Amino acid sequence: LNAHNKGVPSASKSTASPAEEEKNTNLVTKDVELANLVDLMDFDVVKEYHKKKLLYNKYYDKIVKRKKSPKITDCETRLDQLTQTEQELKIDLNKSLNELNELANKKRKRASDFSDEPRPSKKVKSSVQQ
Description:
Layout: H1 18-40, H2 43-67, H3 75-89, H4 97-113
């Protein structure tokens, strides 16, 4: 590695902007850090670390998105739909849960009264046995 030659501005570029100089020094320090890592550890270890780091960076966004709670979109539209549903079903969501359960049971009883299905009746046992 030619870490000492990479990212170093030449003498003819003395009029470079400060932002470019900062970028160049960052590149130099990164190259020096990489060279130090290679010196301290085996090149294969650094190579494997780099592969794992790239793989982690690739899937980082997916991991973060899984952990985030989902966002509610079109909140106004959903609230409008909720109020329409309340009006259609004649349910006040501010009532306690017990009252709502009683109301649901009453509606269920009324619906079963009007059903077309015959009610189950007692079966008559046949007198003939085999």
